[in-house]
Specification:
mainly alpha; single chain; 2 domains
Length: 384
């Protein structure tokens, strides 16, 4: 961490702290403690078997949500150091941002949200907060991981106003139109940089995308031309890597320089100044943002809507819908601890409580576990 933080960086000595006071921590900062708790959580380990575009069993070389989260944290720390922001807070938010994601990536999330519509819907960012606030069960004195306010606030990067009204002060900014810390804003942008570029890499390796297709995107073409001009005839694997690393560098450098300019022009001097802004301060220059948006549109049309990916997404949604209907219809099919929790919440909140427990169970599944559970429930040949 830099020897001196910027005056507008998050400062744990002025934090709203933890929901349950635990006192000091010796040699670790409070945000270091948050990062360490996240890394040692069960939900973080499960990310190894959750994927965004490719179902986990489709190949061992595709990135998982775990490797993605590590890449996000690396990019975030690099930028945080240049901007003199709190690196440990950036890392904690980056590592935790996907803890609430369902199996099967966005397809699973869409399916679970559809199932939960009568019960308030499902939002993976709110679920990530629920994981660290309630579902992790390791400590004798409190539920969850008891993270610092700024870490929890950063994890909740998106939230509907209806859900924000239920979550209290951690979601207050969605009702008052205030901003979160620069560290949380940075983790959000690092997430975008990481997933766009690793989806290029995975898409090419899966042969769902081609270099020729990607050259229709100006950001890719410009850097691919640089690689060819410098190295000439190199292998496709080397072309892929040399191009994507240059794209990442361009995005990171632009984000740093444009954000420094924005902070100076807005005369940001304190965290209160950051929070009072009408829009986030961490961002790309207009030219690079346009190029990055073009890349995102390309990936949506050519990769995420590719017929092979689409067919897997449809199958994944069917699995989620079938699991939800089975468990909501007969909670005794849930594992004993989830069944007990469903009964407890149902007595307090009715069917909404039962549905929330079913959603917690399904959202916590890995890709493989969801497929196995579906087989256990619906294949008569499987006894257990």
């Amino acid at each position: 961490m830099p020897t001196e933080l910027a005056p507008y960086a998050a400062d744990e000595t002025r934090s709203r702290g933890r929901r349950h006071d635990e006192g000091g921590s010796g040699h670790r900062s409070q945000y270091q403690r948050d990062r360490d708790r996240i890394i040692h959580s069960a939900a973080f380990r499960r990310l190894e078997y959750k994927t965004q575009v490719f179902v986990n069993h489709e190949g061992d070389l595709f990135r998982t949500r775990l490797t993605h989260s590590v890449e996000v944290a690396q990019i975030a720390r690099t930028i945080a150091r240049s901007l003199r922001l709190h690196e440990d807070l950036c890392e904690a938010v980056s590592l935790a941002h996907d803890l609430g994601h369902t199996p099967f990536g966005h397809a699973g999330q869409d399916a679970l949200d559809a199932c939960m519509k009568p019960y308030g819907g499902f939002e993976h960012n709110a679920q990530s907060l629920r994981v660290v606030d309630e579902l992790e069960d390791k400590y004798a004195e409190f539920r969850g991981l008891n993270l610092m306010f700024e870490t929890r606030e950063g994890i909740l990067k998106h939230c509907s106003k209806a859900r924000a009204a239920q979550l209290g002060e951690v979601a207050e900014r969605f009702l008052t139109n205030r901003q979160t810390t620069l560290e949380a804003q940075l983790a959000n942008r690092a997430d975008e940089i990481a997933y766009n570029n690793h989806d290029i890499d995975d898409g090419l390796r899966a042969r769902l995308l081609t270099i020729e297709q990607l050259r229709s995107v100006s950001l890719f073409r410009r850097h691919h031309d640089e690689v060819l001009a410098r190295y000439g005839a190199i292998t496709p694997k080397q072309q892929r890597h040399e191009t994507t690393r240059r794209i990442i560098n361009t995005l990171v450098v632009d984000l740093i320089t444009h954000t420094q300019r924005t902070l100076a022009e807005a005369r940001i001097e304190t965290l209160d100044d950051v929070r009072a802004q009408p829009l986030p301060l961490i961002g790309f220059s207009p030219a690079v943002r346009a190029e990055n948006d073009e890349l995102k549109r390309f990936l949506y049309e050519q990769l995420y809507r590719h017929h092979q990916v689409y067919r897997m997404m449809v199958k994944a949604k069917r699995v989620i819908h079938a699991l939800f209907e089975a468990f909501i219809g007969d909670p005794k099919l849930l594992p004993p601890d989830f069944h007990a929790e469903a009964r407890r919440l149902e007595s307090d909140e009715g069917e909404h409580g039962r549905a929330r427990v079913v959603a917690d169970y399904i959202a916590g599944m890995t890709d493989r576990y969801a497929l196995d559970e579906h087989e256990r429930l619906f294949d008569p040949r499987r006894l257990r």
